[in-house]
Design brief:
The protein is of the alpha/beta class. It contains 9 helices and 10 strands. It has 2 domains: about 140 residues, Rossmann fold (3-Layer(aba) Sandwich); about 70 residues, no CATH class. About 35% of the residues lie in helices and about 25% in strands. Helix 3 packs across helix 4.
Length: about 240
């Protein structure tokens, strides 16, 4: 699959949030989306996930305008928002089953699919507990499982490692590497070390503009040090 941003801008009132963004995202890649607070990351994600539409420009998925035909994106999308809101009186099984139904997953396959995701995120021992009793990290894992319902080909994760312990973050990184072999995976984060270990491609937003899109290695070559140092130099310049 291929996503094209074609001169995309977004403005709220008289305030421009995104300015003339053009870039291409392809299957088989993990993209790290980074930028300081207020750079426009959240707005870009809203446009990509069809929560909002551009003021100017177009976003295409395999040649289809996702603002004109949002179902072409939504049918292929798995999305984890920055703040995972769970229904506190549901169990994880009930929660995932509910969203599997909303996604239109075949009823015959929902139960085994949900069980597979619960096992993947080590939630099986807690299936009888209500989500309101879960820790922040456990709720995050439920959100990640929900994002993978239906085996989406485009996965957009906003701060995916929040609340996870080091072992869980390692397991998540290995999962991302496997998922990205055939998918477009976008990780939006302020934790540069997360994408340093995971993403091969990075997108740097600053003041609503894409200041860099390309390989992580080429970006780091422009500066002395590691990715975090290169990023800090770049943002400060």
């Amino acid at each position: 699959m291929k996503i094209n941003f074609n001169h995309v801008s977004k403005q709220y009132g008289n305030y421009p949030v995104l300015k003339n963004i053009s870039m291409e995202l392809n299957s088989g890649n993990i993209y790290g989306l980074v930028g300081p607070n207020g750079a426009g990351k959240t707005t870009l994600i809203k446009l990509l996930t069809t929560i909002d539409v551009p003021t100017k420009g177009k976003i295409y998925l395999d040649g289809k305008d996702i603002a004109q035909d949002p179902t072409c994106m939504r049918g292929n999308l798995g999305y984890l928002p920055q703040d995972v809101n769970v229904y506190p009186y549901l169990t994880s099984v009930e929660y995932l089953t509910y969203f599997a139904g909303i996604k239109g997953i075949d009823k015959k396959t929902i139960k085994p699919h949900v069980q597979e995701l619960l096992e993947l995120f080590n939630l099986t021992p807690h299936v009888k507990k209500k989500l309101g009793t879960y820790s922040g990290g456990m709720k995050q894992r439920v959100g990640l499982a929900c994002a993978l319902l239906g085996n989406p080909q485009i996965i957009v994760l906003d701060e995916p490692s929040v609340g996870l312990d080091p072992e869980e973050r390692l397991n998540l990184r290995l999962l991302f590497e496997e998922l990205a072999k055939t998918r477009i995976l976008i990780l939006a984060t302020h934790i540069i070390s997360d994408i340093d270990l995971t993403a091969k491609q990075i997108i740097v937003l600053k003041k609503g503009e894409v200041k860099y899109t390309g390989t992580k290695d080429e970006f780091v070559k422009s500066y002395d040090g590691d990715l975090e140092e290169a990023y800090m130099h770049f943002v400060a310049s």
